[in-house]
């Protein structure tokens, strides 16, 4: 009988066969996962490093949730396009009055803090109003009230002195366009400069407060019951990395703001509207205003931001100087009621917002 030159191979033990099968399956799964990753990377949008108002260089630490653009090499804004022109919004809202395009006429009698009854008496409407809270969400600073007693407040405040107010205020946060995200990381001085470029001025805190609360001095722009669905409020607080925001025009700052951001475009919350028709006055972003008190720094923040803070009309933050800037701070502009004139022509952003020309106020 003919014998093979090679010895007959013994059947592999069952354990060895199982091991080889597992290796083969693992290899196949690895190839499939790699192919899926390649497909996803190929279809995912890239993070823009060249932005419409400035160039950002350097590697970003992670993929961003939003497309950001740098405004004047120092402020930030999420790329977005207006959903309507200011003229069209004026027609829909019907509250422009004698004011320039895109602004709201605010007129009426503002309730004033009570006059001191004795030396050291520093009562304010904010302090009086807190005594009418029917249900507290939290009494720890910054306190939040779920509902104020309207009847009790109207009775308590009926004899307060009043002052006539008449002025114009931007309907939305700067750049004052419905559907556009607000510009942030702006100092008090920079906000005043940007308003002046439009022939306007930064609102003072009394104007801002009255436009928010109306003649009743409501605690919230929409009434007496805190509504977390009306304005962008009560979002969870996220710890921030302060060093990541410096330099403020760098990629690390953009990535940190992208991680922290929980705001929305202007006008996205239709019920977040004051008695005069000014939008987004509480929540979303803090807004710079000018102090009306003598002998203190002029830089006052009003309205709160998207986090779990007071976000009422009367409270203010008075602890930051004029050079302070942060990831949730912006502003809006005011003007005298007799300063009505044609607003600067708008340039509508179309196509890729990161490559298209910016509106005049963002150039």
From TrEMBL:
<feature type="domain" description="Sulfatase-modifying factor enzyme-like">
    <location>
        <begin position="158"/>
        <end position="334"/>
    </location>
</feature>
<dbReference type="GO" id="GO:0120147">
    <property type="term" value="F:formylglycine-generating oxidase activity"/>
</dbReference>
<dbReference type="InterPro" id="IPR051043">
    <property type="entry name" value="Sulfatase_Mod_Factor_Kinase"/>
</dbReference>
<dbReference type="InterPro" id="IPR005532">
    <property type="entry name" value="SUMF_dom"/>
</dbReference>
<dbReference type="InterPro" id="IPR042095">
    <property type="entry name" value="SUMF_sf"/>
</dbReference>
<keyword id="KW-1133">Transmembrane helix</keyword>
<protein>
    <recommendedName>
        <fullName>Sulfatase-modifying factor enzyme-like domain-containing protein</fullName>
    </recommendedName>
</protein>
<dbReference type="Pfam" id="PF03781">
    <property type="entry name" value="FGE-sulfatase"/>
</dbReference>
<dbReference type="InterPro" id="IPR016187">
    <property type="entry name" value="CTDL_fold"/>
</dbReference>
<feature type="transmembrane region" description="Helical">
    <location>
        <begin position="21"/>
        <end position="42"/>
    </location>
</feature>
<keyword id="KW-0472">Membrane</keyword>
<keyword id="KW-0812">Transmembrane</keyword>
């Amino acid at each position: 009988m003919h014998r093979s030159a090679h010895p007959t191979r013994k059947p592999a033990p069952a354990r060895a066969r199982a091991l080889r099968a597992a290796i083969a399956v693992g290899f196949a799964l690895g190839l499939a996962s790699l192919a899926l990753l390649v497909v996803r990377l190929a279809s995912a949008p890239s993070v823009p490093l060249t932005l419409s108002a400035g160039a950002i260089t350097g590697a970003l630490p992670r993929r961003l949730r939003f497309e950001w653009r740098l405004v004047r090499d120092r402020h930030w804004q999420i790329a977005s396009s207006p959903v309507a022109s200011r003229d069209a919004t004026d027609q829909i809202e019907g509250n422009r009055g004698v004011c320039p395009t895109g602004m709201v006429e605010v007129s009426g009698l503002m309730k004033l803090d009570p006059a001191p009854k004795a030396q050291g008496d520093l009562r304010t409407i904010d302090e009086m109003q807190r005594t009418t809270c029917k249900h507290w969400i939290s009494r720890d600073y910054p306190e939040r009230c779920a509902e104020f007693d309207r009847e009790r407040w109207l009775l308590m405040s009926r004899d307060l002195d009043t002052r006539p107010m008449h002025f114009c205020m931007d309907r939305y946060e700067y750049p004052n366009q419905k559907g556009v995200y607000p510009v942030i990381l702006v100092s008090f001085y920079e906000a005043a400069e940007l308003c002046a470029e439009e022939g306007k001025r930064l609102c003072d805190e009394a104007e801002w407060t009255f436009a928010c609360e109306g003649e009743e001095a409501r605690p919230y722009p929409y009434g007496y019951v805190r509504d977390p669905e009306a304005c962008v409020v009560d979002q969870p607080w996220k710890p921030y990395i302060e060093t990541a925001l410096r330099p403020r025009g760098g990629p690390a700052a953009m990535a940190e703001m992208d991680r922290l951001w929980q705001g929305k475009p202007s006008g996205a919350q239709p019920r977040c509207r004051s008695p005069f028709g000014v939008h987004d006055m509480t929540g979303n972003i803090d807004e710079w205003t000018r102090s009306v008190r003598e002998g203190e720094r002029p830089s006052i923040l009003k309205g709160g931001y998207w986090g779990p803070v007071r976000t009422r009309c009367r409270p203010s933050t008075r602890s930051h100087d004029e050079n302070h800037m942060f990831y949730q701070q912006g502003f809006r502009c005011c003007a005298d009621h007799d300063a009505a004139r044609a607003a600067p022509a708008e340039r509508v952003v179309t196509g890729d917002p990161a490559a298209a020309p910016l509106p005049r106020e963002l150039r």
